[in-house]
Specification:
- By secondary structure, the protein is of the alpha+beta class.
- The protein has one domain (about 10-105).
- The protein has helices at about 10-15, 30-35, 40-50, 60-75, and strands spanning about 20-25, 50-55, 75-80, 85-90, 90-95, 100-105.
- The two termini are about 30 Å apart.
- Residues about 115-120 have low confidence and may be disordered.
- It comes from Calcidiscus leptoporus.
């Protein structure tokens, strides 16, 4: 039987992740576009996560535009973005098999307690 998708909210609750979460690393083979195209997920990230690192899997810049806009509209700082392929970087030329997007939360999460903040149903 196919696996059922699990929301980020469900994962945070199931694993009792602390607040704030220092870094969320997302590499879900194209599923990143659907995951972040959700206002509830973006609200949860803003409330709980300091940094997000995303593996992006579409080489077309136009496919990544909505993902970049979603984080920009939610006031995240884009530290770097390199789509799939070869790109000059501060460390010299790098060939990325998957693209990478690094972001930092401009709004420091204010956690009332270690677990469950921002996760209530």
């Amino acid at each position: 039987a196919p696996l059922q998708p699990t929301s980020l909210r469900e994962l945070i609750r199931a694993y009792k992740l602390p607040c704030p979460i220092d870094m969320l690393d997302v590499d879900i083979q194209g599923g990143e576009y659907q995951l972040f195209d959700d206002n509830a997920t973006m609200k949860l990230l803003r409330a709980r996560v300091l940094r997000v690192h995303v593996g992006v899997h579409d080489w077309r810049r136009s496919s990544n535009a909505p993902l970049l806009a979603q984080f920009s509209d939610d006031d995240w700082h884009r530290a770097w973005f390199y789509p799939k392929g070869a790109h000059p970087t501060a460390w010299g030329p790098v060939s990325f098999a998957d693209g990478v997007l690094g972001l930092t939360n401009r709004h420091v999460p204010r956690c009332e307690r270690s677990y469950e903040v921002g996760v209530r149903s």
